[in-house]
Amino acid sequence: MCTMQNGTQMTKMKGKKKGLLRFFYLDEHKSCIRWRPSRKHDKVCEGKKSEIFRRYADNRFDPNCCFSIYYGDRVKSLDLVSTNAEETRTWITGLKYLMAGISDEDSLARRQRTRDQYPLLNCTFSEADKNGDGTLSIGEVHQLLHKLNVNLPKQKVRDMFQEADTDENQGSLGFDEFCSFYKMISTRRDLYLILISYSNQKEVLDLNDLARFLENEQKMRGLTREHLVDIVAKFEPCPENLQHMVLGIDGFTNYMRSPAGDIFNPEHNQVNQDMTQPLTNYFIATSHNTYLSGDQLLSQSRVEMYAYVLQAGCRCVEVDCWDGPDGEPIVHHGYTLTSKILFKDVIETIDKYAFTKSQYPVILSIENHCTVPQQKKMAKYLREVLQDKLDLSNVSMHECKKLPSPEILKGKILVKVQLFFYTRPYKERKLKLQFDFFQDGNSINSTNQPKKKRRFGRSIMRSFKRKVSGYKCSKSNQKPLPTFYHVCPSLLEVFKMNVSPVVVFFLAAYTNSWQVSSLDETVMNQILQLKPGELVRFNQRQLIRVYPSNYRVDSSNFNPQPYWNAGCHMVAMNYQTEGRMLELNRAKFSSNGNCGYILKPKIMCAFNPELEDPIPGHRKTQLVLKIISGQQLPKPKDSMFGDRGEIIDPFVEVEIIGLPIDCSKQQTRVVQDNGFNPMWEETLVFNIQMPQIALVRFQVWDHDAIGRDFIGQRTVAFTSMMPGYRHVYLEEMAESSIFVHVAIIDMAGKVRHFKIHVQIFI
């Protein structure tokens, strides 16, 4: 208030003119906003939306410096631009307090102390009670506040402590008293001011107020009285408010912190996409080296990893098969010290967990290094264990020009086999050729196949020698074909040699839709660089699997987004390695009930993901994010002193991950010494060419003198974001969140979700 009364120099916008520089200040009675040199002193009152800022199509003004005030009987607007965002935040906050009839922060806190009992805080209370006497001393309270990242003056803490200490046992807080104290420090000014603005200063929302909020801000349509009554009944804890069917600040807070107020669309927790299109129209959640629990050199191979990834929504798992002792095929990472597990145990685990999370088809990506006798054992176990899950008799695979849909293949397991041949070039360099294809469950043993199909591999080798000179097949080094396959395998991958990726596409032209190309990231990156448009078109008719380079011995993950941009279906991730890349993968597949399949957008049928204008004539989308506040942000996990470390100085970074032209990041200012309820009140604006495949990543960091420390993140598919006021809960942190306002606007100026600039209603 003092800052507002001292005054601020701001630019008053007027039509499309440059603007008038004026000195604005709050009068001594805190009732009017005046400006010099003008002597007008109209009182401000409730108004409606202004159009002034939207006339400036060139976006010349920083949204963080703009706000509008409405006044007069005819609802005129005063549109202002300050010189910096800090001044704007001061005016916005001050005007909101004035609107609610509040003159200072302590008054707001006193109002909120009349709220009803907070939810039980047994866990927090027990942790804070260091000596176990069932009460909290002032010293224990100070330790708790430090752990919660609350930095308040000691005298203010003592005053609140004494106010909460109401029983005969003075000098300590029992549990009920602690709840009152916790309620004092947990003031949500942001939510309280929203409630005040929609309740006409009643401090409770009646059903009409609630409906206006949900329609105007949250963009909900078709609200019924029954739905509004259900919200109040479910979230309002105060019996008196329930009797009058109104929502108080506690009930409003409960509602906004429920899944209904989450940034993630709750409808996307279930399958919500068309699942009847060919498999080539989907991205498929895919695991690499599924059996490994760690790195590719020394870690343990475990059957439990198959249960883990399948229950995590993965639909394509890898099985590396080698000859084992006693005639039993084994699974492990060849030529390394990783432990070995039985192939039979792997198949039994897959059979048990394949469809516990999702009913859509599972693909076994079998890398087959076994000799014929043990290949026969593999075929035997597949038939005996998986049984009718392999039966595709209801699908006409020979006549089908396109792959069947996930819907048709529900409950089925497809076997994709990689066959290996080894040849020697003239300089004795080893070349590995890889063949991928789906098998037919009714003809899994090669003894049932025509001889000319079993000879097809040799004809492919001869064909390859004609197309790539300088190489010849060495019969002594050639491994036998596997004992089971459905269609004639064809040459689909070439690596460990200097062959242009164009050769791969040339050879792939001889394939059909049932065959799969498996390419490592090195080859795929060459293709993306040289032939990105051709790759997009190729992915429309045949599945491609991309897997990490063999040089990633630590089982690290590549960035999957460039391969998704080109329409690659199976981008294989090391599910055992947590981190940014796996978080992107989780966000991608969360938008369709985490069923393992994501339908590609139709717009991907013909475009070049690497161009600056990949879709000529396509209108861009603008994402406007107002980062408002944070709640209960913890100290960094790797903090040197743990909970005893310094109180954090948090800031938020928002990143768009999608087409190269769309990738960008912005961040808020740093809030000093407050991780419990920091306030940012900053607006970030992003222009996005192809939001259908974009991810939005929220990251919270702790700023320090030598850099920054990671606190937490949440990544959401753009198409899964909800409009309006939303909480973004950090992944694996139940209570930690940031509070934001989401708006999506097309570049023609049409607001699809909410107002582009800050508006104050007085």
From TrEMBL:
<keyword id="KW-0378">Hydrolase</keyword>
<dbReference type="Pfam" id="PF00168">
    <property type="entry name" value="C2"/>
</dbReference>
<keyword id="KW-0443">Lipid metabolism</keyword>
<keyword id="KW-0963">Cytoplasm</keyword>
<dbReference type="Pfam" id="PF00387">
    <property type="entry name" value="PI-PLC-Y"/>
</dbReference>
<dbReference type="InterPro" id="IPR001711">
    <property type="entry name" value="PLipase_C_Pinositol-sp_Y"/>
</dbReference>
<feature type="domain" description="PI-PLC Y-box">
    <location>
        <begin position="514"/>
        <end position="604"/>
    </location>
</feature>
<dbReference type="InterPro" id="IPR001849">
    <property type="entry name" value="PH_domain"/>
</dbReference>
<dbReference type="GO" id="GO:0004435">
    <property type="term" value="F:phosphatidylinositol-4,5-bisphosphate phospholipase C activity"/>
</dbReference>
<dbReference type="InterPro" id="IPR011992">
    <property type="entry name" value="EF-hand-dom_pair"/>
</dbReference>
<dbReference type="InterPro" id="IPR000909">
    <property type="entry name" value="PLipase_C_PInositol-sp_X_dom"/>
</dbReference>
<feature type="domain" description="EF-hand">
    <location>
        <begin position="116"/>
        <end position="151"/>
    </location>
</feature>
<feature type="domain" description="C2">
    <location>
        <begin position="603"/>
        <end position="732"/>
    </location>
</feature>
<dbReference type="GO" id="GO:0048015">
    <property type="term" value="P:phosphatidylinositol-mediated signaling"/>
</dbReference>
<dbReference type="Pfam" id="PF09279">
    <property type="entry name" value="EF-hand_like"/>
</dbReference>
<dbReference type="GO" id="GO:0016042">
    <property type="term" value="P:lipid catabolic process"/>
</dbReference>
<dbReference type="GO" id="GO:0005509">
    <property type="term" value="F:calcium ion binding"/>
</dbReference>
<keyword id="KW-0807">Transducer</keyword>
<dbReference type="InterPro" id="IPR000008">
    <property type="entry name" value="C2_dom"/>
</dbReference>
<protein>
    <recommendedName>
        <fullName>Phosphoinositide phospholipase C</fullName>
        <ecNumber>3.1.4.11</ecNumber>
    </recommendedName>
</protein>
<keyword id="KW-0106">Calcium</keyword>
<feature type="domain" description="PH">
    <location>
        <begin position="1"/>
        <end position="100"/>
    </location>
</feature>
<keyword id="KW-0442">Lipid degradation</keyword>
<dbReference type="GO" id="GO:0051209">
    <property type="term" value="P:release of sequestered calcium ion into cytosol"/>
</dbReference>
<feature type="domain" description="EF-hand">
    <location>
        <begin position="152"/>
        <end position="188"/>
    </location>
</feature>
<dbReference type="GO" id="GO:0005737">
    <property type="term" value="C:cytoplasm"/>
</dbReference>
<dbReference type="GO" id="GO:0046488">
    <property type="term" value="P:phosphatidylinositol metabolic process"/>
</dbReference>
<dbReference type="Pfam" id="PF00388">
    <property type="entry name" value="PI-PLC-X"/>
</dbReference>
<dbReference type="InterPro" id="IPR001192">
    <property type="entry name" value="PI-PLC_fam"/>
</dbReference>
<keyword id="KW-0479">Metal-binding</keyword>
<dbReference type="InterPro" id="IPR035892">
    <property type="entry name" value="C2_domain_sf"/>
</dbReference>
<dbReference type="InterPro" id="IPR018247">
    <property type="entry name" value="EF_Hand_1_Ca_BS"/>
</dbReference>
<dbReference type="InterPro" id="IPR015359">
    <property type="entry name" value="PLC_EF-hand-like"/>
</dbReference>
<dbReference type="InterPro" id="IPR017946">
    <property type="entry name" value="PLC-like_Pdiesterase_TIM-brl"/>
</dbReference>
<dbReference type="InterPro" id="IPR011993">
    <property type="entry name" value="PH-like_dom_sf"/>
</dbReference>
<dbReference type="InterPro" id="IPR002048">
    <property type="entry name" value="EF_hand_dom"/>
</dbReference>
